[in-house]
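SAMPLE LOG
Freezer: B-3
Tube label: C17
Construct: single chain, 389 aa
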Amino acid sequence: MKNNKFLKIIAVVLLVITTAFVTRIITVRQVLSSNENFGKVIVLEKYLRENYLYNKDIKDENLEAGLLKGLVAGLADPYSQYLTSDEMKKLTETTTGKFQGIGVIISPDEDGTVTVISPIKGSPADRAGVESGDKILKINGKDFSAEKINEASKEMRGEKGTTVKILLLKKKNLETKEVEIKREEIKIDSIIKNKIGDIGYIGITMFDEETGKDFVKALNELTKEGVKGIILDMRGNPGGVVDAAVEIGDAILPKSTFVTLKDNKGEIVQDYKLDDKYNDIKMVVLVNEGSASASEILSGAIRDLDRAKIIGKTTYGKGVVQNVISLPEGDGLKLTTSEYFTPKGKSINKIGIKPDIEVELPENIKGIGIDYMDTDTQLKKAIEIIKEK
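STRUCTURE (predicted):
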C-alpha cells in the first residue's frame, strides 16, 4: 500500500517526539489517532492521491522530501534544513573545495530572501560583479526565496560552459541588475600566499578540509623568507569547516580557549583549546561584511587574545553551528545545535566582529586584494600598520 512509506516517515518523526518529551510508552497508532495535526497529514496525503488532477505523476520520494523539508522549515531557522541525497552530495563537494557552477556562497536571510554571503574570489560570479549582501531575486526567470535555498543553489550549478541568468537586488544602491554568467569548474584554493615587499600576505577564501594544513605551510614558508609581518585576509570568507579554523588558531595564537560551543540548555558541548606553541610574528587581520562563521570564530579569538589589529568592516554575524547528520538512504539533516562564544565569552550571532580600525572601500572599486592594491584602502591600511614599529 502506498500509504505505508508515508506512515513510516511519520512514525520516525513521532518516535523522536515521544522519546524526547514523554516517559510512558506510546505507540505510533495511538499518537496518530489522538493527535489531530498528524492525523491531518494522513488524510491530506490520501486526498492528494485520489483527487489531484495529475495524480499519476505523483512521486513518493517527492512527497516524502516535501514532508520532511516542511517539518524542519517549521523551526523558522534559516540555517536548518532537511537535505535530499543529491543536496547532501553537493554539500560534500563544497567542503572538499571542488564543484561546477558560478562560485557564489549564498544564505537564507531573515527577511525571506536568498542573500549572497560572498562570491568566491576569481570565480565567474566575482568577475560578473556579484557582491556580498546582494539579494538573488530570480534565477533563469524563476523566483527564489529563503525557503527554496537548496533549489536556488541547484539552479545555479551545472555543467561548465553553460550559462545562468540571475536577477540581483544590489546592496549598494538597491537597484535591480540582471547578469548572465557562464559556469566553470570551481576549484577553491582556500589559501592564497604572496608577498608585498617584505610583508607576507595570506588570504583565506574559505575553510575546507585542507585549509589548516595549507595555512601552516604558507606561514612557515613566509617566516623562513624573513618577512616582517603577515597580513591575514579573510574578507569575503563565508566560513566552512570549524576544525580548520582551530588548526590555524593553534598556529598563530597563544595557549587559551579558542572557542566554546553551548547547546540550548546553555551547557558547554565543546571547548576548543590551543596549546602553547605558536608563531608570534607580527600580524594584521582584514575582515568585511562577507566574513562569516568560521572566519568570525578565528577573528573573535584573535581580537580577544589581543594577537593582532583587525581592519575593515563589521563581519556578517553568523554565530551558530550546524551539525550535519547522515540518514540511512543518503539524505541528511543540517540542524542548528549550538552557539559559539569567543575566548572572553562574547556572542557573535547577529552582531559580528567589529574591527579595531574601520576602513571604507572606494565606492567604485573593482576588486580587493593584491591585484587591486592601488584602490584597496583596507589593504593599504594593513600595510601601514605592519610597517609601524
